[in-house]
């Protein structure tokens, strides 16, 4: 290991993006599509200008449209360059080293990696026999609970009641 690399990275297990069967397979876990971009998209890209400039770092237009669509304030909308980017922002913004982070044992694989990277205590909570989350299992757990809906790799949904 490098003498410059933070010690917290020495025990991190590399992320496995799932089984990659080759180019003859469509990998749904990688958000790949069998469809080519529409001709309209290709035309827009061909004529795009100013791609050499940074766009609005706050994604104001997108956030405002999403806020309007869901009757929220723009300040309640967070967008990123993908789920991993948003999770990274959430982990670094809301949790402190040593915090306990609870999540289902079978879930989005980056939770454990992020917990290890940032020095959080990962609490992996078992699923029920029918592979669902029992929210009562999380009632006494500090600091944060992370639950993805729909849950990869199981593709099961749940309805939350408050």
UniProtKB/TrEMBL annotation:
Its EC number is 2.6.1.9. Pfam families: Aminotran_1_2 (PF00155). One of its GO terms (molecular function) is pyridoxal phosphate binding. Gene3D superfamilies: Aspartate Aminotransferase, domain 1 (3.90.1150.10), Type I PLP-dependent aspartate aminotransferase-like (Major domain) (3.40.640.10). It is an enzyme of class 2 (transferase). SUPFAM superfamilies: PLP-dependent transferases. Its cofactor is pyridoxal 5'-phosphate. Residues 24-141 form the Aminotransferase class I/classII large domain. Keywords: Aminotransferase, Pyridoxal phosphate, Transferase. PANTHER family: HISTIDINOL-PHOSPHATE AMINOTRANSFERASE (PTHR42885:SF2), HISTIDINOL-PHOSPHATE AMINOTRANSFERASE-RELATED (PTHR42885). This is Histidinol-phosphate aminotransferase.
